[in-house]
Amino acid sequence: MALLRTRSAVFTTLRRAFSTTSTTASAAVTHEKPTMSNYLLTHDLASQIGSCMPISMMRIGTLIHNIELRPGEGGKLVRSAGTSAKILKEPTAARRVLIRLPSGVEKLVDTRCRATIGSVSNPSHGAKKLRKAGHSRWLGRRPVVRGVAMNPIDHPHGGGEGKSKGHHSVTPWGKPTKGGYKTASPKKKNRII
Q1: 140 with 111, same domain?
Q2: Above 80 in pLDDT, residue 21?
Q3: Which helix (H) or strand (E) holds 151?
Q4: How far out from the chain centre does Cα 137 lie?
Q5: What is the residue range of 151's domain?
Q6: Half-sphere exposure of 7 (CA within 13 A, CB side)
Q7: Are residues 78 and 141 in the same domain?
Q8: Residue 26: what pLDDT?
Q9: Are 92 and 68 in contact (CB under 8 A)?
Q10: Which residue intervals make up region (Disordered) (predicted)?
Q11: Dist. CA 38–CA 176, nearest whole Å
């Protein structure tokens, strides 16, 4: 019963808000109340933030996220915190639309692919400061140890006394590992057949 009373109260309020105004002198002086048809014409309900729809139904310059690469596959691009992509060109005859990704790369995507309007929330995620080493461990990140601090058995840069860089990087079998080293290959000789 309470639900019916609430519904009737909501409908009454909506009817009052969107009812047509009479053309009297007092109505001409004051601002007119918006009618339902005027409201639908001025507010594009399809381009509300958070709506998911095919890219072909979106305008140029719309910020989007969670973009599919193939229709019906699910969102693959622009999903991390605070990111958004921008639609640059309208769909062409080839059914492709040009999108600028957060990295600056411009990519052609099928217009049948779906995307969500707006940007992903939590833009300050990357600026968050970790207070102590344990904080990164809680996030599942293991410590990073430099190669020069290891033993020669553990890393090609390892070994030596103190902070030494006195020898070239070698594999556990003594072969050089860094650039510039080429294995000796026999020269091809021109053969006369």
Answers
A1: no
A2: no
A3: none
A4: 25
A5: 133-163
A6: 4
A7: no
A8: 45
A9: no
A10: 154-193
A11: 76
